[in-house]
Amino acid sequence: MNRDNTADKLGKSGSRSKGRVTLSDVAKVIGVSAITVSRALNDPEKVNPKLRVRIEQAVAELNYVPNRAARSLATSTTQTLAVVIPTISNTVFSNVLKGIYDYTTRHNYEVLFASTYYSLQNEEKLIAKLLAQHPDGIITTGLDITERSKAMLLSANIPLVQIMEVGTGDVIDMSVGFSHFDAGASMAKYLIEQGYRNIGFIGAQMDFRSQRRMQGFLSTLADAGLETDKYLLTTTTPSDIKLGGQLLADLMAKQPDVDAIFCNNDDLAYGAIFECQRRKLRIPEQIAIAGFNDLDASASINPSLTTVKTPLYEIGRSAAELLINTLKGRPILSKTLDLGFELIVRDSA
Amino acid sequence: MNRDNTADKLGKSGSRSKGRVTLSDVAKVIGVSAITVSRALNDPEKVNPKLRVRIEQAVAELNYVPNRAARSLATSTTQTLAVVIPTISNTVFSNVLKGIYDYTTRHNYEVLFASTYYSLQNEEKLIAKLLAQHPDGIITTGLDITERSKAMLLSANIPLVQIMEVGTGDVIDMSVGFSHFDAGASMAKYLIEQGYRNIGFIGAQMDFRSQRRMQGFLSTLADAGLETDKYLLTTTTPSDIKLGGQLLADLMAKQPDVDAIFCNNDDLAYGAIFECQRRKLRIPEQIAIAGFNDLDASASINPSLTTVKTPLYEIGRSAAELLINTLKGRPILSKTLDLGFELIVRDSA
DNA sequence: TCATCTAATGTTAGCGCTATCTTTTAAGAG
DNA sequence: CTCTTAAAAGATAGCGCTAACATTAGATGA
What SS3 state is found at A344? Predict the structure, then answer.
């Protein structure tokens, strides 16, 4: 790799520095003080337009790149938001992260993310690691959190948004999401209304939010006097499409009279639908399938999937917005934002 | 939000600091110098075990969180890798990013990412922004890059890995990927071998790599004396499942005698398969469908999808590994890593 | 003319950490 | 008991930037 040698030309090979071009290098070239260059870059109106132009040229010529670490140290702000999610390789969270990223980048903040892989112990370590970067704000997933994590977040003294759910547990600072319990309940209600009576549930991963969806779902079934445990099949194995087919197969082997299945997420539902296709089971006549999240494929699959649409991108966007508004001292209307969900009725149930 | 007041207790409310606990706070509490605390944390063997224990306790009690910005400034290393990808909300890149993240986090580096949304102009700006963080290394996507981006990357003087493809254009420093041209060619070869003669191609987004796949595909068709332009349908619209159905519909309307279609990626292929199902077209008897990437659903969909498996996670992992090995001064076997691809033959073609 | 104000620029110090060099303490060696 | 050596701890300065205050030049007006 060809290395740039501007710094060598500036004659600083002996110093502790890595030889990068600094503010005062630029300043020296023009013959002004470093602070003036700093102002020209950060507060342009404060410096004479002609000087500013000269400074900008010098910056471009020398290929000067500001050192954010030094800036952070001087201002005690990092222009960085930390994000803790379970995993990046799940469409649900990549959509959330996209929402965060898009808002954040427009407002000149950087995003540092970390994946817990659904472990609260990991989460603790990651929070500690991320806080060492002194982010200006932090986003974590879910309301279930260890005491130690909570203590660290509190003593970090920065705004925090807990995303994905509202309505359960204690919010530490702010939160954005929707009620998973209600979402599960609303799907149960819909299936009951459609006349299904032997209603099943298949779920994987079974993190806290999945459990809340299941609880909402089952309690509604119970209220209607329907079976809850009989048609229930869950595993803590991470969720994927293939697993959906397998869980459907297992459930049907155990309870052949099941007439509708709520899949804990769309991926499982896709797998279930594919398995039904293979078994030549007509959906929804012989068995109804419902999903959760309304991912991309749900509208296109055959039959199209009845599911619950969740505001993933918006959760991310709103969380970032809350943080940045807080940081800029703008008024926050509410510390808790329920973005709701929407039952999407299609052909599969 | 309840605020921690340890810092107030330490009596530093008048300073420029944000009131956080610092190394010398910890040092003062124990009655040693700051540098000793620093050593206890970064180079534990260098301090007396008994003292070390006391320091560790004080750190825990005071809830001390090191300031990475200060550390970066002092060491001119940030323990951060920058990643530039087209978009995070595409399974392809979220898998790559996961590979990067997993390796990186194990080696105590942070990841800063940015999305170009497939624009080289955006990429320029993002590279400039990311370099201001002085990452220790950087990963960018693709070998097509503007001169200005290249200049910035060169003068940043840090190791760089260009990911996703090898074998085309100039590599600036290192690269990891596979040949998209060859991958496209190999699918063409397979389809020809299977006896298809009116072979089509549908593609969306049509970024550089998609184009290279298409070129490889078409040139192989041409070599076999088959039509290339006639059964070709592409758009620069971002790719999604629904679009796959639409492109298939459009192509079949234009050229009803098409007997096989190579879809530029699996998402398009899923959409195409769903559309065929709706049209009651038997796959592969009436029309064969092939995809690219071998995403999760490809093995489960009906019929299961013949596709090209690409080493997405491994590309990310290897790129991170190359960077970190370079940074640690370990020998690099080769600056260019071709991880290849694999034709996965299933039922759809 | 001189005081008064504003705009533009400069000086100083410090953000929190660690590289580097120096000093102190402890442990052996003879 | 002194001398040598290693281990442990400290002092100092500096990484690159900007907050806070200080200075200078130029404009304004009575």
Answer: strand
For every residue of B172-238, DSSP letters joined together read SSEEEEE-HHHHHHHHHHHHHHTT--SEEEEESS--HHHHHHHHHHHHHHHHTT--SSTTEEE--SP
Among A344, A342, A339, A341, CA closest to A163? A339
B348 part of a folded domain: no
pLDDT at residue B169, rounded to an integer: 76
Q: In whole angstroms, what separates CA B90 from the centre of its chain?
A: 10
- Per the structure, how many domains does chain A have? 3
CATH assignment at residue A207: 3.40.50.2300
∠ CA A343-A345-A347, rounded to 5°? 150
- Asked whether residue A304 falls in the same domain as residue A329, the answer is no
Domain span holding position A197: 180-309
Q: What is the DSSP code string of B265-296?
A: SHHHHHHHHHHHHHTT--TTTT-EEE-SB--G
CA A34/CA A54 separation, integer angstroms = 14
Residues of A with CB below 8 A from B91's CB?
89, 91, 94
Question: Do the Cβ atoms of B270 and B91 come closer than 8 Å?
Answer: no
For residue A21 the two structure tokens come to 């071009």
In Å, the largest CA–CA distance within chain B is 85
Whether B36 maps to a domain, the answer reads: yes
Please provide residue A311's backbone torsions phi and psi, each rounded to the nearest 5 degrees: -85, 65
Q: Residue A211 contacts by C-beta under 8 Å, 6 or more apart in sequence?
A: none
Q: Above 80 in pLDDT, residue A2?
A: no
Q: CB within 8 A of B170, min separation 6: which ones?
A: B143
**Distance separating alpha carbons of residues A302 and A291, to the nearest angstrom:** 13
Amino acid making up residue A216: G
Question: CB B151 to CB A242 under 8 A?
Answer: no
C-alpha–C-alpha distance, residues A77 and A238, integer Å? 38
pLDDT digits (tens, 9 = 90+) for B228-283: 999 999 999 999 999 999 999 999 999 999 999 999 999 999 999 999 999 999 99
- Footprint on protein of nucleic strand D, Cβ below 7 A: A 15-18, 20, 22-24, 34-35, 38, 41-42, 66-67, 70-71, 73-75; B 16, 31-33, 35-36, 45-48, 51, 70, 73-74, 76
Helix then strand then coil, in percent of chain B rounded to 5, is 45, 15, 40
pLDDT at A169: 75
Name the residue closest to the C1' of C18 by its CA. Answer: B74
**Joined tokens for residue B49:** 């075990």
Q: Give A5's pLDDT tier (boundaries 50, 70, 90).
A: very low
What does the alpha-carbon distance between residue A232 and residue A245 come to, in Å, rounded to a whole number? 15
Lowest mean pLDDT among A127-136, A209-218, A222-231: A127-136
Residues B237 and B288 in one domain: yes
Beta carbons of A82 and A319 less than 8 angstroms apart: no
Query: What is the pLDDT, as a whole number, of residue A9?
Result: 46
Taking the stretch 53-72 of protein chain B, residues with Cβ within 7 Å of any atom in nucleic acid chain C are: 66-67, 70-71
In a domain, A1, yes or no: no
> Which residues in chain B come in under a pLDDT of 50?
1-14
> Which CATH number does the domain housing residue A21 bear?
1.10.260.40
Q: Are residues A221 and A304 in the same domain?
A: yes
- Is B298 inside any structural domain? yes
Query: B306: which 2 tokens?
Result: 């013949």
Give the pLDDT score at A1. Answer: 43
Q: Judge: B300–A1 Cβ closer than 8 Å, yes or no.
A: no
